Amino acid sequence: MASIDPLLRRNKDFAASGAHEGASIVAKHPVFVITCLDPRTDPSAFLELELGDAMVIRNAGGRVSPDVLKDLAYIGYLSNTVVPGGPRFEVAVVHHNQCGTHFLADEEFRRGFADLIGGDDAALAAEAVTDPEQTVRFDVELLRSATVLPDTITVSGHVYDVTTGLVTTIVPAAPMHPRTSSVTAEPV
Asked: Of 26, 87, 100, 127, which has the most beta carbons under 10 Å away?
């Protein structure tokens, strides 16, 4: 039996329930959540999201990477093209305590991983979430300065505590920076 088999059985129940019927490509809440792929940090659980409530990207650490920027730029372009003048959306960056990316702060671990993937040691060190308040501030600033994103979005930053289940706002929602400069921030 494959590990996914119990989940595929659950999918049959989901499909039979009809919960997917009528789901729209446009999220019910104009929120785009970026968070970690850690199984303890599923936004469907800690934000009590239902199907179609919000857009979600999950990656190691919930960090803003070039791929995340590309996805956000696509959603922004799609929104402005398909629904001109449509609702603005907020990008909510959510980091968490006890993040597994803290291992990237360990030089030996990081170098071994860099060798495995052919990655850059310094870039990997910058991805470590050892202080989620600091890294969420950095990623919010990175997003607010990104010239590829529409100026109609707002960005906020939050930290999820895996021990209490609470989300704390670190950076309240604010609009994009004026388009006078490009991103120049240094990694934390």
From this structure: 127
